[in-house]
Amino acid sequence: MLSKSFNHDFSLFCHKRVEHFLSEENSSIEFKALQERQFHIRDALEQKLNNDNELKYLDELFKYETEAFMRIYATAFKEGILFSKNPQ
Question: Which domain holds residue 37?
């Protein structure tokens, strides 16, 4: 089990890494292309929705999807760190 301080430090590391990734030119270009496609789909869905209440659900979906991916990547990074420290 990982300590609270490790989890906190690791969360900060992940946050800084995402910031760094977004500032890298090559990564940023790829990310922006994916983001443009994602927002294109969101805009298409938005046009089909009838009211602000339905739009709220679309925004919530986007938020939870982003959070889910962050948790998946954080878990994968943690497991990678533990694996690299485990002599095989």
Answer: 26-82
Number of domains in the chain: 1
DSSP E strand stretches across 9-88: none
Task: Let me know if residue 5 belongs to a domain.
Answer: no
Mean pLDDT check: name the lowest of 23-27, 49-53, 65-69, 75-79.
23-27
Q: How far, in Å, are 11, 14, 21, 44 from residue 24 at the CA level?
A: 20, 15, 5, 29
Which pTM was predicted?
0.47
Please, what is the end-to-end C-alpha distance for the chain in angstroms?
A: 20
DSSP code, position 3: -
